[in-house]
Design a protein that fits this description.
Two copies of one chain form a homodimer.
Chain A: E1 7-8, H1 18-24, H2 34-51, E2 57-61, H3 64-73, E3 81-86, H4 89-100, E4 104-109, H5 118-127, E5 133-137, E6 139-140, E7 145-146, H6 149-159, E8 164-168, H7 180-183, E9 187-191, E10 202-207, H8 209-217, H9 227-235, H10 245-261, H11 263-283, E11 299-303, H12 310-319, E12 322-323, E13 325-326, E14 335-339, H13 346-362, H14 371-386, H15 397-402
Parallel strand pairs in A: 1-12, 3-4, 3-5, 5-8, 8-9
Antiparallel strand pairs in A: 2-10, 6-7, 9-10, 11-14, 13-14
Helix pairs in contact in A: 1-10, 2-10, 3-4, 5-6, 11-13, 11-14, 13-14
Chain lengths: ~400, ~400
C-alpha cells in the first residue's frame, strides 16, 4: 500500500477529521456536571436545523439500530397495525423490530434498487385506514437508494392524517436537506458515525408533538431506550444513563464543523461527491444498482459484473488502501458500495476511482487511463459550479479578529 | 484551581490513562474487517480472567443500564417470578427493569448501607421455590457497599439449584476478584467506564451454559440487546450492529494495561486506594455510610454531617480541582461519594484527601494539618506491604528483549 492512511469509503463509520479525532482523545468529565450540560445543549440545539425541527431532540448511547428500536417501542403498542415500507435491508430491519415487539406489521416491499412510490403508500393507506404508523427509510444504506420522504410523508398524511410517520434517516440526516416539521414527519432517527463525522455510539432522535404525545401512551415495554426519560434528563442537561462521553465530544466537534461550513455547503459537498462517485463508477464500466432518479447522496452501489468476484476484487482494492463495502443480505457478492458521507471530499472520491482504475488496469480490463477520474471530476465540477449556497459559513474567531474595528 | 487537570473522583466515568486517551483519538476502521475482528477477540478473551469464566462474553454498545436490561430480557419471560435483592439505587433499577418487561418481581430490600445477607436469600428461596431468577448487585455504586456474591450465589444455588443468578457488576468487575464459573453465577454485566479504564459506551456480559441456554427460551421481546445475535456475530469477529469503535479501541488498550499490571496487582491497587479513602475520610471526621464489613473497593460513601450542605461543600472541593459525586435518589444531600476505580492511584486518593483537609481548614473545622493524609497513606501502605501478588505482571517486549538469550 503506497499511502499512509486508508481511504475509508464504507457507508459509515466514516473517517474522522483531525479535530474530531482529537476530541475523541480528551479526558473524561463528570456527566452530571455543567461542562457536560453545556455540550449536550449545543449538540441537541445544533442538530435541530439538520432535522428541520424546533422540537426536542434526544441523544441515546446506542447504534442506529438501537435508535430504530427506540422509534418503535416509544410510539407503538402491541397489536398496533403498522405499514412497513421496505426498500432494502434496513427497511426490513425496521419492520422486524416492530414485529418483535408485537406490532401487527404489513410489509410494503419495493424492489431493491428502487425508491418507494408515494402512490403505493397512498393506496395502501386508503385500502386499509387502520394503520397506527408508517415506517419509512430515508436513505437505504444497503441499496444506495434515497427515498423521497417529503412526497411519501405527504401521501401518508393526506390519506391517513393520524397515522404516525416514523423515519430511519440514520445514514441520510445531516448530509441532505430534511424538514421534519414542514414535511409532517413524526419521528426521525440518525446516527453519530454517518453524516456527523464522529465515531459510532450515539443515536439522535427528534419527534413531533404528535410523536412525543405517542411516547406517553405507547405500551411496548422499554427502559434503556425510553425517550421519556431521555427528554426529562435533557431538560436538566443530562442523560438518564452514563453517555458515551468520548463520542459526545466528537459529535459536538462534528456539528461545530458542519455549522462553520454552512448547512447548504455541507449538502452541496455531498451532492458533488455523489455525482463524482456515480460518474466515475459508470465510466469504469460498472452498472449502478440504484434507480438514477433516487440515487443516494451518501452511498453508491454498483453491480459486480459476471466473473467479477467480490473477494479478490476487494483484496486488490484494499491492497491499494481503499476500503469499500460489499453487498448486504441477498446482495452479498452481487454489488459493492462506495460510501460518501460525513467528512468526505471530492478528492477522496477521485482517489477511490483512481484506485479502481488501477485495479482494472492490473486485471487487464481496458479502460483509457484517466477517463474514470476525469468523468468523476467533471460531474463534481458541474455540481460545484451550479451550487449557489443560500447559507454562508459562520465567520471564525480568527476572521472576526481580522476585521478592523 | 491551582492545578492543570481535575482529579476525577466520581465512581465512573473514570480518568483515562494517557495511552487510553490516545486510543480514543484513533481514526475509524471498517467494523466488518479483520483489524476489528482481532481487536474484538482480544477484548472478549482478555476479559474472561476477570469474569472468572471460560464461557462466551458479549460486548454491547450501551451504558451499564442497557447491560442490565440485556440481562433481564435475554433470560426471562413475562410472568417469570424473580427475586430482586436490592441494597440501593442500582438494585432498585435492576428490579424495575424486570417489572417493566412483565416479570413477577418480589423485592428483598436491604437497608441502604448494608450488604445482603446470604441467610435472607436462603430463606426467601426456601419459603417460595418458584423463582426463575435472583437479581444481585455486586457493587452498589449508590451506597458504596460490595455484596458477598460468592456467598449469596452459594445460598441461592444450594436452596434452589435451577434458579438463574444474574449479577450487576457494572462497577465491580475488573477491580476485585470475581469467579463467575466457580461461584455458579449465570450472568454478569460490566461497563467500560468503570474498572476497565475506558470511556463509557460499552457493556460486557458473560453468561454460564445455563445462562446462554436461557437466552434460547426467554420470551421477553428484544432486538438491539439480543445476546444471541451478539454471540453469533462475535463468532465471526463482529458485532451485530455498528459498535462504538472509539470505545472499543480504549477498552482494548485498558485490558492490555490491566494484563501488563497483573490481575492481582490491579486488585491490590484498588484495595489500597479503598483503604486510603476510608481512613482519610474517617480521619477528616466523616462517618462512613457503608457497613465496614462490606465496604466497596471501588467507591466510598460518607455521611454529610448536619449543617454540611452538599452544594457549597462540593463547590469548595471543585474549586480546588477535585470532582466528587453527591448522593443519588433518597441519599441526595445526605452523603457524598469518592470513587476509586479504574486507573486510580494511591497518590490520587491522597490528593483528594488533601483537598478535603484544605476545605475543612478553609471552613474553620479543626483538623490537625496532615493527619487525614497520613492516615490515608498508612492505610494504603498496610495493604501494599501485606499484598503478596500471586500473579506476576507479564514481561513487556522490552523486558523480553533485555533477557540474554
Amino acid at each position: 500500500m503506497d499511502r499512509f492512511e486508508p481511504n475509508l469509503r464504507i457507508p459509515g463509520p466514516t473517517a474522522l477529521p483531525p479535530s474530531v479525532r482529537e476530541a475523541g482523545g480528551r479526558q473524561m468529565i463528570n456527566h452530571r456536571g455543567p461542562e457536560f450540560a453545556a455540550m449536550l445543549g449545543r449538540i441537541l440545539d445544533g442538530m435541530k436545523p439538520f432535522f428541520g425541527t424546533t422540537q426536542d431532540v434526544a441523544m441515546l448511547t446506542c447504534a442506529g439500530s438501537g435508535g430504530l428500536e427506540a422509534a418503535v417501542v416509544n410510539t407503538l403498542s402491541p397489536g398496533d397495525r403498522v405499514l412497513a415500507v421496505s426498500i432494502g435491508s434496513f427497511g426490513d430491519r425496521f419492520a422486524k423490530i416492530a414485529g418483535i415487539y408485537g406490532a401487527d406489521v404489513t410489509k410494503l416491499d419495493v424492489e431493491w434498487g428502487q425508491a418507494a412510490d408515494p402512490q403505493a403508500v397512498r393506496e395502501a393507506l386508503t385500502s386499509d385506514p387502520g394503520y397506527r404508523a408508517v415506517l419509512l427509510t430515508h436513505n437505504e444504506t444497503s441499496t444506495g437508494v434515497m427515498n423521497p420522504i417529503r412526497d411519501l410523508a405527504a401521501a401518508a398524511r393526506e390519506t391517513s392524517p393520524d397515522t404516525l410517520i416514523l423515519v430511519d434517516s440514520v445514514s441520510g440526516l445531516g448530509a441532505v436537506p430534511f424538514e421534519m416539521d414542514a414535511w409532517g414527519v413524526d419521528l426521525v432517527v440518525t446516527g453519530s458515525q454517518k453524516a456527523w463525522m464522529a465515531a459510532p455510539g450515539l443515536a439522535m432522535i427528534a419527534a413531533s408533538e404528535r410523536g412525543w404525545a405517542a411516547t406517553e401512551t405507547a405500551k411496548m415495554p422499554r427502559f434503556y431506550l425510553d425517550l421519556r426519560s431521555h427528554r426529562e434528563s435533557a431538560a436538566l442537561g443530562q442523560t438518564p444513563f452514563t453517555p458515551a462521553i468520548g463520542v459526545v465530544y466528537q459529535v459536538d466537534e462534528g456539528i461545530r464543523l458542519m455549522h462553520a461550513e454552512g448547512k447548504d455547503n455541507v449538502f452541496a459537498r455531498h451532492e458533488a461527491c455523489a455525482a463524482a462517485a456515480r460518474a466515475g463508477l459508470t465510466a469504469l464500466g460498472f452498472a449502478l444498482f440504484a434507480d438514477p432518479a433516487n440515487a443516494s447522496k451518501t452511498v453508491t452501489a454498483a453491480n459486480l459484473p459476471a466473473g467479477h468476484d467480490w473477494k479478490p476484487f476487494n483484496t486488490a482494492i484494499k491492497s491499494h488502501g481503499v476500503v469499500l463495502a460489499g453487498g448486504q443480505g441477498k446482495l452479498t457478492g452481487k454489488i459493492f458500495r462506495l460510501g460518501h458521507l460525513g467528512s468526505v471530499t471530492v478528492g477522496e472520491i477521485l482517489d477511490a476511482i483512481a484506485v479502481l482504475e488501477r485495479v482494472a488496469a492490473e486485471q487487464g480490463r481496458r479502460i483509457e487511463p484517466g477517463t474514470a477520474v476525469a468523468a468523476a471530476q467533471a460531474a463534481a465540477l458541474a455540481v460545484q459550479t451550479a451550487a449557489v449556497p443560500t447559507t454562508s459559513p459562520a465567520p471564525s474567531e480568527a476572521d472576526r479578529a481580522a476585521v478592523p474595528a
